[in-house]
Specification:
The chain has about 170 residues and is α+β, with helices and mostly antiparallel strands. It contains seven helices and six strands. Helix 4 packs across helix 5.
């Protein structure tokens, strides 16, 4: 089992024979690629099954290496499932009940009212619900203005907050 930090949950599994920490694929992409290749070769690993956003970075690696060692979904499918905005859109098109969701930049132009008067603000790409903020209207406005000042609205979505007593919700 490998991850970018030692505290990853799977590293504590009784089924993990060996664990290791690799460089952040997001911040050190080339080093991540080289470290992964070297580790696979050094330890005679048969194949790699990337999870989370690592799948997107592994998909960028040398195609011959990928054919030999990696098991990946098509990159378009991976992007669809990891991008919270496109994933919700896909579910809605297939008639699933989903919370009202809008890109933060579009929310500034076309806001919606949340029944609960609360909103969920989250990055389009995040790992295990990191950086999610549950906001009331005033807090949301301030958070959106801060994102706008950093020119990052397009990287976030706003969703209606679903009260867990009347809806089933996951992050």
């Amino acid at each position: 089992v490998a991850d970018t930090f030692r505290g990853a949950l799977a590293m504590h599994s009784i089924y993990a024979k060996k664990t290791w920490v690799y460089p952040s694929p997001r911040f050190e992409t080339e080093r991540f690629h080289e470290t992964l290749k070297n580790y696979v070769q050094k330890h005679s690993i048969d194949f790699v099954i990337p999870t989370c956003e690592e799948q997107l970075y592994v998909a960028e690696m040398d195609k011959e290496w990928l054919k030999r060692f990696a098991r990946l979904d098509p990159i378009e499918q991976s992007i669809l499932f990891h991008n919270k905005e496109t994933f919700i859109e896909k579910l809605a098109k297939q008639q699933f009940l989903v919370p009202v969701t809008r890109n933060a930049a579009n929310f500034l132009l076309y806001p919606f009212q949340s029944e609960s008067k609360k909103y969920v603000l989250k990055p389009i790409y995040s790992r295990f619900a990191t950086h999610i903020k549950i906001c009331e209207e005033k807090e949301l406005e301030a958070a959106l203005q801060a994102l706008k000042a950093k020119n990052e609205c397009e990287k976030w979505i706003v969703q209606e907050f679903l009260d867990s007593t009347s809806h089933y919700c996951t992050t």
